[in-house]
Write a structure and sequence with these properties.
Organism: Variimorphobacter saccharofermentans
InterPro entries: HAD-like_sf, HAD-SF_hydro_IA, HAD-SF_hydro_IA_YjjG/PynA, HAD_2, HAD_sf, PGP-like_dom2, Pyrimidine_5'-ntase_YjjG
Structural class: alpha/beta
Pfam families: HAD_2
Largest sheet: 6 strands, parallel
CATH superfamily of the largest domain: HAD superfamily/HAD-like
Distance between the termini: 8 Å
Protein name: Noncanonical pyrimidine nucleotidase, YjjG family
Mean pLDDT: 96
GO molecular function: 5'-nucleotidase activity
Oligomer: single chain
């Protein structure tokens, strides 16, 4: 079994292909409202959304400031008179039904849960994340799901991880590893919490941040070797 017993998995970008989930949910919601959506509008939205989530990670704004301002800001830019609040609710409802997997994610979770304690650690909207995890059947492989909204904190805050650790039975930091694609939230969060970090980096990007990567993988199946699974 190796050194690790407790595995903390990020959800979006690690288990789920969030780009694909987001694109499908946006497409359906824009269509419902009969609003235009093209590549240029998508880029504007991505810029606004990324900026807000980054502020959220840094603790500068709360979750509501992210989700209930992003579409209003976008619509102002593209000349649509809509504050975006009802649109956001419909988008979240649609997003909750999207659960496209990252390559090999379902298989890896199915195999690992038999020998390890798996948990999901995710920044996001509680109702949406729970629905996606349940509809994808991922919930059968994990012991608990920790969504930032319900904890009152978010990755990479140490308080978020303290909240999680206090709710993991017989928690041992030396036997715990976080697996995630985000250097700023997953890896930096693992650093703050004093646990081993595993950066899921399928695009083989360079780490230009101050986050310390203990282990780097380009495929989720590489976890088998790291964990001495077979």
């Amino acid at each position: 079994m190796g050194q690790y017993q407790i595995l903390l998995f990020d959800a979006d970008g690690t288990i789920f292909d969030f780009d694909l989930c987001e694109k499908e949910a946006l497409s359906q919601t824009f269509k419902k409202y009969n609003y235009p959506l093209d590549d240029e509008i998508m880029k504007k939205y991505e810029h606004i959304n990324h900026s807000l989530w980054k502020q959220y990670e840094l603790g500068q704004i709360d979750r509501n400031a992210v989700i209930y301002t992003r579409f209003g800001a976008l619509f102002r830019e593209i000349g649509i008179e809509d504050d975006g609040i009802a649109f956001e609710d419909d988008y979240q409802e649609t997003l909750g039904m999207q659960h496209f997997f990252i390559k090999d994610a379902a298989e890896v979770l199915q195999n690992l849960y038999r020998k390890y304690e798996l948990y999901i650690v995710t920044n996001g909207v509680t109702k949406t994340q729970y629905r996606r995890i349940q509809e994808s059947k991922v919930d059968q492989y994990v012991k608990k799901i920790f969504v930032s909204e319900e904890t009152g904190y978010q990755k990479p805050m140490v308080e978020y991880f303290d909240y999680c650790f206090a709710r993991i039975e017989n928690f041992d930091a030396s036997k715990t590893m976080i697996i995630g694609d985000s250097l700023s939230s997953d890896i930096k969060g693992g650093n703050n919490a004093g646990i081993t970090t595993c950066w899921f980096n399928p695009q083989k990007l360079n780490n230009t941040t101050d986050a310390i990567v203990d282990i780097e993988i380009h495929s989720l199946k590489q976890l088998y070797d790291i964990l001495c699974f077979f």
